Amino acid sequence: MNLFNWITENQQIIYIVILMIFVGIEVIGRVPSVLHTPLMSGANAIHGVVIIGAIIVMGRAEPGNYLALVLGFLAVIVGTLNVVGGFVVTDRMLEMFKRRKPKQ
After folding, report:
1. Widest distance between CA atoms in the chain
2. Taking the model in full, what pTM does it have?
3. Is 1 helix (H, G, I), strand (E, B) or coil?
4. Can you tell me the distance from the alpha carbon of 55 to that of 72, in angstroms, rounded to the nearest whole number?
5. Any idea where the domains of the chain sit in the sequence?
6. In angstroms, rounded to a whole number, what is the distance separating the alpha carbons of residues 34 and 2?
7. pLDDT digits (tens, 9 = 90+) for 10-37
8. What is the distance of C-alpha 36 from the center of its chain?
9. Rounded to whole angstroms, how far apart are CA atoms 43 and 34?
């Protein structure tokens, strides 16, 4: 299968992805800077769905399909880093708003 046939078969999906990119840029561009970090940290934590999808891909891959196994493994690693990073940033932001005990 060559590239032209693949593009022709997946033309609607390609249009949807391009539309999602433009809509995402427009939505993110209109978020005030005060809200940007909390929204992004929460969104990173929600991306645990990527980890589940990667595990499913790895589980259904044929034993000899090393490309699917490697890509699934990398998706699990990167998705885990994204989720943990989201929780760390959220925790740091919440620490900023806690009252500190006065010094004695």
Report:
1. 74
2. 0.57
3. coil
4. 7
5. 1-30, 33-104
6. 47
7. 899 899 999 999 998 888 778 776 676 6
8. 16
9. 15
CA geometry: angle 59, 77, 48, nearest 5 deg = 75
Give the number of residues written for the chain. 104
Helix axes 48-60, 66-96, angle to 10 degrees: 160
Please state the three-class secondary structure of 17-71 as a single string.
HHHHHHHHHHHHHCCCHHHHHHHHHHHHHHCHHHHHHHHHHHHHCCCCCHHHHHH
- Single-letter amino acid code for the residue at 60: R
What are the tokens at 74? 């990398």
The CA distances from residue 44 to 38, 39, 79, 84, 98, in Å, are 10, 9, 9, 8, 23
